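Researcher: Here's my situation. A collaborator sent me these components and asked whether they could plausibly form a single complex. I don't have experimental data yet, so a predicted model of the whole assembly would be a useful starting point for our discussion.
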Amino acid sequence: MSSFVNEFMGSIKAKDPNQPEFLQAVEEVMISLAPIVEKYPMYLESKVLQRIVEPERVIQFRIPWIDDGGNIQVNRGFRVQFNSAIGPYKGGLRFHPSVNLSILKFLGFEQTFKNSLTTLPMGGGKGGADFDPKGKSDNEIMKFCQSFMTELFRHIGPETDVPAGDIGVGGREIGYLFGQYKRLSNSFVGVLTGKGLGWGGSLIRPEATGYGVIYFAEEVLKAHQSTIAGKTIAISGFGNVAWGAVSKATELGAKVVTISGPDGYIYDPDGINGEKIEYMLELRNSNRDIVAPYAQQFGVEFFANKRPWEVKCDIAIPCATQNELNLDDAKTLLKNGVTAVIEAANMPCTAEAMDLFVDNKIIFAPGKAANAGGVAVSGLEMSQNSMKLHWSMDELDTKLHEIMKNIHVQCVMHGTQRSGYINYINGANIAGFIRVADAMLDQGVV
Ligand code: NDP
Ligand code: 2IT
């Protein structure tokens, strides 16, 4: 590692020693940026790196609510308003018991670069709560969302900060959050994305992240004289992103043989297609957080407490959560002949796993490039809300496709090495950084 990265990370670690996920995300970006800041001293002189790693604002708050048994519950809520150089803060809300400041800072930091890659006017932000939706009744989810928004509403707005969904926050939660925002602010505005179609939502938003991942994968494969058709794909997770990725990959002629949950993974050698894809939605909506019922339903094998990375596949697409694919998993995938790893979740591969893929010159696409389709269609939802009109499914799908193609072009432009190997990590980090950093320089010392 260069002395620049060592020195820089030393100062960040000293400030936030207990934020491992945040440090991991920053280090990955700084490794990519080292040659850029050497070439363009203005980025060092202007202290833009020191500024870009510091969120503009962090809000932490109490969320008291009453469960179905009449007991008072207290959760912790956050909104990290990371960077507004190129637009209002934009990024999802995560409800998961693991949520803490380190995770939300890593996500807000990544979001800043991801949003920049879309070329839409969106800054970076992330929020959420350490609330566990598992096993909660619909009424409890609503009560929780209302209490969460009762504090959050004073910090957000259509021109200030526009949250959306992430793990544990889908269409139902966005509905409850929007209802409470509207009540408190007495205004019907596009303050959230991922809304219902009948009240300001956009077509294709639920599918957008997964579809975008596969559109990006198509571009990547095209650049390597290959196609997605005929490929065997291992996917993890069974949430919103996994569902979209399975649908589009299958439509384009690939065979997805795994999905997974916290209980283990299922292996479906015939491929997850047709009614099986619809069944994924049922699994998710059951609020039980298990994939095992898929095995019973369709007569396939279930591997308890195992991850899908032991299955032989051409392409691996982690769609669940951060650091879900480690060095041992990476070694197994390589041994089994994997040719491409496309991150659909945010930072699903550990740093060691990523290094192994890159050292072995395996195609590796980082989440901030590959999964940007979700926030891109959120950006298109904001545009439609501002104009008070709706675009058609075809128009939106075409725009999403164009955005993903353009992100690929940017990655190739900034990530192609002398050997010809496309380092998508460097490409995405550099392209995402330049737009945000240049805007910050234009706007003075802010
Ligand atoms: P969902 O809540 O729909 O699904 C999340 C999936 O990941 C579930 O299978 C969930 O199971 C699993 N998961 C979550 N946390 C953990 C954990 N700590 N350990 C093991 N499994 C876990 O979320 P999404 O599909 O929306 O999000 C998946 C990933 O994609 C996340 O990294 C998210 O940040 C990213 N992403 C989402 C976008 C979106 O638009 N929704 C856009 C871009 C990226 P369980 O809940 O049981 O743990
Ligand atoms: O990680 C992500 O990009 C998201 N969860 C989507 C954010 C958004 O604002 O649509």
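Model: Some features of this prediction you could bring to your collaborator: Residues 70 and 140 are 11 Å apart (CA to CA). The longest helix spans residues 393-415.
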